[in-house]
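Dear colleagues,

For the upcoming journal club I promised to circulate an example of a predicted protein-ligand complex. I picked one with heme C because it came up in last month's discussion. The inputs are reproduced below in full, followed by the predicted structure.
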Amino acid sequence: MSDKEVDEISGTETTGHEWDGIKELNTPMPRWWLWTFYGCIVWAFGYAIVYPAVPLLNSATPGVLGYTSRGEYAAKAAEAKAEQAFYVEQIEAMDVTEITANEELARFARAGGKSVFKVYCSQCHGSGAQGASGYPNLNDDEWIWGGTPDAIYTTIAHGVRYEDDDETRFNEMPRFGADEILSTEEIVAVANYVGRISGGEADAGLASEGQALFAENCSACHAELGVGDADLGGPALNNGIWLYGDGSIDALVAQISDPAHGVMPAWNKKLGDAAVKQLAVYVHSLGGGQ
Ligand code: HEC
Ligand code: HEC
């Protein structure tokens, strides 16, 4: 036995300190706690040797493994790039129709096209490609310039009425009122004919008068009965889908008198051919693809 005093009630040694008759018991740390504590110290030394740990002026000790989180990121990014390159090379070598027919490539292209669309196209066409006044909806069946994969590709690659591209799609509707090609009465009559074939408001008498005027002045671009001509970019006028205005006689008269024309930028130079193909596959998949 040591010469230390033992507390009678608990049977534990005291430290020998005493304050106002109160003595402090000398209770040791629990074993499990101590071993965990020693374990942590050993682990910390090991960690400091293997991984970057001790701060220096501009960096830290590198550790024997040479690990950095930047290095880990770069390796993962390179891995993802290599995986993408495998698909992108195939996309570059195929035309858009072939890509849509290849399930695996088409899936890759749709995902890629969707993310590019969000960045470059949604400000005009809307984040869901639903369009807005003057900007066509790309989800529906109406295509001004055609809805086949190849037609969509050409539109995206070269744009519409985009002066900087020599192969841009181009067609302009004559200014029937502003250039006095038709009289005001004739314009009202032909507007009523368009109102009738589109299922909108129309005066039956005026519409009949407008029919012949339409055949003579409009069907070259909008086709007979106004079903549209995608080769010329003359939109269909018989389906109640309007790029400009709401299809009312006033709106039709305004468009026929002094037409509005949309401009769509060309994207092949800016985004590259592979991205444009992916966009075409994505747009074609939105529902209205032909
Ligand atoms: C600055 C606005 C603007 C941006 C940005 C834009 N577009 Fe367009 N887009 C238009 C306009 C305007 C038209 C209609 C052209 C016309 O009147 O013939 C159009 C037409 C189209 C058409 C043809 C629709 C049809 O019915 O034939 C497609 C396809 C299209 N855009 C896809 C895209 C894609 C994909 C992007 C992104 C890479 C994009 N657009 C970016 C304005 C834009
Ligand atoms: C030389 C070709 C051409 C002729 C002729 C022509 N158009 Fe057009 N028209 C167009 C084009 C191209 C557009 C689409 C403009 C755009 O996409 O921005 C258009 C657009 C329209 C629109 C707007 C469609 C919408 O969705 O808002 C109406 C309405 C229209 N034309 C009616 C007529 C009528 C009526 C005539 C005859 C009096 C006529 N057009 C003659 C080429 C023509």
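Two points we might discuss: Residues 144, 171, 173-174, 176, 190, 194, 217-218, 220-222, 233-235, 237, 242-244, 252, 255-256, 259, 261-262 surround heme C (ligand 2) (CB under 6 Å). The two ends are 99 Å apart (CA to CA).

See you all on Thursday,
B. R.
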